[in-house]
Amino acid sequence: xxxxxxxxxxxxxxxxxxxxxxxxxxxxxxxxxxxxxxxxxxxxxxxxxxxxxxxxxxxxxxxxxxxxxxxxxxxxxxxxxxxxxxxxxxxxxxxxxxxxxxxxxxxxxxxxxxxxxxxxxxxxxxxxxxxxxxxxxxxxxxxxxxxxxxxxxxxxxxxxxxxxxxxxxxxxxxxxxxxxxxxxxxxxxxxxxxxxxxxxxxxxxxxxxxxxxxxxxxxxxxxxxxxxxxxxxxxxxxxxxxxxxxxxxxxxxxxxxxxxxxxxxxxxxxxxxxxxxxxxxxxxxxxxxxxxxxxxxxxxxxxxxxxxxxxxxxxxxxxxxxxxxxxxxxxxxxxxxxxxxxxxxxxxxxxxxxxxxxxxxxxxxxxxxxxxxxxxxxxxxxxxxxxxxxxxxxxxxxxxxxxxxxxxxxxxxxxxxxxxxxxxxxxxxxxxxxxxxxxxxxxxxxxxxxxxxxxxxxxxxxxxxxxxxxxxxxxxxxxxxxxxxxxxxxxxxxxx
Length: 496
Ligand SMILES: Cc1ncc(COP(=O)(O)O)c(C=O)c1O
Prior knowledge:
Bound molecules: pyridoxal-5'-phosphate
Strand content: 5-15%
Helix content: 25-40%
Largest sheet: 7 strands, mixed
Strand order of the largest sheet: 1-9-8-7-6-2-3
Oligomer: single chain
Number of helices: 14
CATH topology of one domain: Aspartate Aminotransferase, domain 2
Radius of gyration: 24 Å
CATH architecture of one domain: 3-Layer(aba) Sandwich
């Protein structure tokens, strides 16, 4: 297999140029997927032995393009309505491509990422500013501990780093001495809507299963119940996690109230806001008030790969007090003991890809105004979709969207709102979703959801479909066609 220097420049450019065209056409395709195979068929096709002989690069690439790519899901398709992770921003793609070639390693600055380290710092400062954390003057940023955040590979990594900070906060020195009194290491989350990453973080950090779920109302903490839990479990709780956009309905927590209740109960508790989705609000004057109070939280997770059309994967953990990152720092003489080596402040990550290049180019290219326009357009799309669901007698919307998620159910023809048959409604919804996945023509997401607004029966566990209005290729006719398709599947499922 040749290295770049062994191939003529023109041959390299021809191959990469062809591939770029394939990649662009893939993203511009209307189809969610071109080829559906059962997992076992896909396994048998692709899980093969490594051949002894070399295969020419042209041949391998052809195989990838002809066999693997057609079966890939295209999240940028305007028929992909369940998420909005399009990865289709041109500037972000350009930044990502260059980063791929530049091969910078942000573990160290001096010899591994002399300039990339500082574009990453710039990006972290932009994100901090967006959520209302104060930034030091640039001239005062003299080490990585002055930056106030780290880029990670996802919301899971960012949340886990936050929980590590919470653990060090309640039991300083645990990093060195090992986990001691786990009875103090519980984390409070809203019941039924939390993301698994927080629970997993506790397990990974040696604290065990110590999640305390507090009842919710309208997909937000029931504040009385939160207050009561914090009182009853005093001295057991190390963190409260609030969702600025939960994974399912993207409802933004009442951040100020949760802050006030928590701080009043016990100021030692670490307050973490998961704003993986909520970052979207920060760009829009009309949505920014929903994030009010987030700047008083000890840490905040944001996930640009979810809400900013940048290719996977890029998340960031931001901290109110930049110096707290010292409490979870790594020391090794393999990481340069230099001021700007990010390897010192990024738990779990050694070699560190220049993932922020995508965001740096994207944010610079759009500017604040461009970003606001994008987010505003998404709200219009979401409102349109919610309106279509509301206008349909056989569809029921379950949440009042704060951002771009709409959870909805197909209702069978004999549905009686006074006596809803929850099992049947769920069974039909699951059948609809199974068909959607099987056929691969459209995509809606599905998950379990407590009926927190009481639109079917308060407290029931529902399995709705979920639309997300982030994909800017979605038009009214896509939404209408998708709902007609769901209705067709629903009618067929009722009979099945
Ligand atoms: C609210 C929330 N937090 C965290 C995560 C985890 O993010 P990632 O998959 O990027 O690790 C998700 C993913 O959907 C999420 O919705």
